[in-house]
Amino acid sequence: NAQGSNPVRVSFVNVNDQSGNGDRLCFNVGRELYFYIYKGVRKAADLSKPIDKRIYKGTQPTCHDFNHLTATAESVSLLVGFSAGQVQLIDPIKKETSKLFNEERLIDKSRVTCVKWVPGSESLFLVAHSSGNMYLYNVEHTCGTTAPHYQLLKQGESFAVHTCKSKSTRNPLLKWTVGEGALNEFAFSPDGKFLACVSQDGFLRVFNFDSVELHGTMKSYFGGLLCVCWSPDGKYIVTGGEDDLVTVWSFVDCRVIARGHGHKSWVSVVAFDPYTTSVEESDPMEFSGSDEDFQDLHFGRDRANSTQSRLSKRNSTDSRPVSVTYRFGSVGQDTQLCLWDLTEDILFPHQPLSRARTHTNVMNATSPPAGSGGTNPGSNGNSITTPGNSVPPPLPRSNSLPHSAVSNAGSKSSVMDGAIASGVSKFATLSLHDRKERHHEKDHKRNHSMGHISSKSSDKLNLVTKTKTDPAKTLGTPLCPRMEDVPLLEPLICKKIAHERLTVLIFLEDCIVTACQEGFICTWARPGKV
């Protein structure tokens, strides 16, 4: 497969036939699209016998998605997005090419970046483009022979949603304009109610899909965000992007709770492993509840769906009788697969009440690394901040970089002396920048008048307020906390598994599936599953 062509993608569907061989696999490579029986860890597919193969001219497939609701042994509905903007609905079992959407490219001329069926729907699907627009389609409707006319339905901070104005119902039903630059990927929450979008402007935006409300946002450390996924219980979102980091965001608290550094280049896919995400009782004797709950906790321990129900129980109990670990993975352009564990100490940092009341920041108990010298004000254990400005407690870190003292933004003293003194070159550059920023904050506001979201000059055609968010403005805010303000995860494993950039990571019950830009699709058996 040529380097320049679109990323290789893989989609799975189970057609529930009686033989037990119900898994089907679709992948695109270059101009071609293939559909095969998938035998998992048992046997490689016979590449000479695809159920369906298509070669496209003038446009390349970029992404695809099966409708799991309607799939049968006789018929499956597969959506395919293309580099020139069209979307095709095909049935690779019946072989009838059924429908083409945006055929004349009147709706959007840019590349399709992501296409997904709306969860629980047999006919609605959502398509994202590199234009930054998303469109909601219904397979039953036509696209019309003229460019659509739109009417504003809802507008918010850096997004707008329009309905299609026409006498008879036509596609698209809705047009979403989100952020700046390409919309790289979106993902529906497990319950289908929320939609997480990541864009080239570096923002994660999470919407309530039905009410079209913005639930929360996050900004990458730098560069665009390329991929996004939800934890099986819908409580956490993980993103990956051009900052080489994976970022874990709490859906409930709308804040970054951890970052992971292991990749040496852009992160192209993030995915949770629902089969390894575990919930364990710390002491079964303490458990109180109905017998059904009790059985649910003890049987079917390795099933993803019961994991979901246990996770919801786990998170609803304040006494926290069970412990939880989320496992997720990531693959990147550095050809590496990383596996990560999200554990209790990151999810629920324990903070003694007495400490929380006195505004005293307790540093983590590890002594500063050798050679940091005694000049680090953060190394004496406590850094006192002025009463009344309660500072968030420092979070546990799974690596040994020394903490710098945290002071509130109002104080004149430079925040990061500690880091400079301890000679952490990585942060020393940050701290100098930080010091400058603090002193010039007032001049900034006076002289540069950053066109922030408050400038409401909306141009008439595109009603989104187009304002570049200055990265220096978001760094150090809840949108994008500084590196030293959130725990930094290290990968459990980080392994080179390909020769070209990786583009696929899918967790299945007995294996993990990856694919790289060369067109190799690999099935990795889980331990004990061969």
From TrEMBL:
One of its GO terms (cellular component) is nucleus. Signal peptide: none annotated. Residues 397-413 have a biased composition (Polar residues). Residues 377-386 have a biased composition (Low complexity). It holds the Pfam family WD40. Residues 362-413, 435-455 are annotated as: Disordered. It comes from the Eukaryota. SMART domains: WD40. InterPro entries: WD40/YVTN_repeat-like_dom_sf (IPR015943), WD40_repeat_dom_sf (IPR036322), WD40_rpt (IPR001680), WD_repeat_creC_regulators (IPR051362). Residues 436-449 have a biased composition (Basic residues). Keywords: Acetylation, Cytoplasm, Nucleus, Phosphoprotein, Repeat, WD repeat. WD repeats lie at residues 218-250. It is found in: Cytoplasm; Nucleus. Interacts with USP12; promotes translocation of USP12/WDR20 to the plasma membrane. Component of the USP12/WDR20/WDR48 deubiquitinating complex. Interacts with USP46; contributes to the cytoplasmic localization of the USP46/WDR20 complex. Component of the USP12/DMWD/WDR48 deubiquitinating complex. This is WD repeat-containing protein 20. It comes from Himantopus himantopus (Black-winged stilt). The gene is Wdr20.
